[in-house]
Amino acid sequence: MMYRNSARLLFTALIVGAAACADSTGPAAGITDAMLTRDVANDAADVTGQDLAAMTGIEALAGLPLASAPITAASAFGNCSWDVAAQMIRCPDVTTPDGLTLSRMMAFYANGATQQAYDAQATDSMVFGAWLKGTLTDANRTAWLKQGRLMVVTGLSGTETQRTWRGEGSRDDSAHVTTDNLARTTHFMSEDKFDNIVYKLPRAEFPFPQSGTITHDVEVSATATNGSGSTTRSGTRHVVVAFNGTRTASVTVGSTACTLDLVTRKISCP
Questions:
Q1: What is the pLDDT of residue 72?
Q2: pLDDT per residue as tens digits for the range 171-183
Q3: Looking at the chain, which terminus has fewer C-beta neighbours within 10 angstroms, N or C?
């Protein structure tokens, strides 16, 4: 469920962009740098919500407490099992409600030694990997997703008051939209980094990250085609999402300052 909405805002952004192209005399007049910035902003909004939801889902899957009091029983991990040779817990591939393929692994550590399950008193960190790929289709829209995340969460031993997420990932996502006799394809390639994202406990009281950032270094390319011809515009954007403990995160896309509602995943830019 944590990846269910992977391309929804991407689709929406491309429909808005396609409509803007349709108002011009030809595709070349319709794709602007401002549109690329808007596409990247919408992409950052969606993937931020997706990643934060994934962190909560991972903690629940692993059996980590979502309140400050430690738990005594390890999670059953669903159908996941211990891989002796790899010294990690592997989970079988699953199909998401959208038909995407999700692969996962996790590993627990106590003073550098691997553990077969989470121990509330001894486990001090956990590594989690997730890889998502597949195709989404919806009416005149198609998206192709290939995403990977490798994360570590620390501060787990004993009675916790907070925990910290760090990690990195990459994405290679594309979407194709046809509307008003215009076809538009947008391709995102992004290297992502998660720096010191701190969650306080209990999660019910502190649902949003207290601090930390997610950065995306994005290569974006958009192609628009209609009866007047076809044109492509591409560029790069450095995106920083900064958290402050509230439902509103600040987002910078290149030189453009935006705000993101972490509940609705709506982003507002000038």
A1: 42
A2: 999 999 888 788 8
A3: C
Confidence of residue 139 (pLDDT cuts 50, 70, 90): confident
Q: In the chain, what are the domain boundaries?
A: 8-268
CA distance 108 to 86: 12
pLDDT given for residue 12 in this prediction: 54
Contact present, 206 and 199 (Cβ < 8 Å): yes
- At 158, phi and psi to the nearest 5? 70, -155
Q: Are the beta carbons of 182 and 224 closer than 8 angstroms?
A: yes
Instruction: At 82, list the tokens.
Output: 């211990």
pLDDT tens digits, 192-220:
999 999 999 998 899 999 999 999 999 99
- Answering whether pTM is above 0.90, one says no
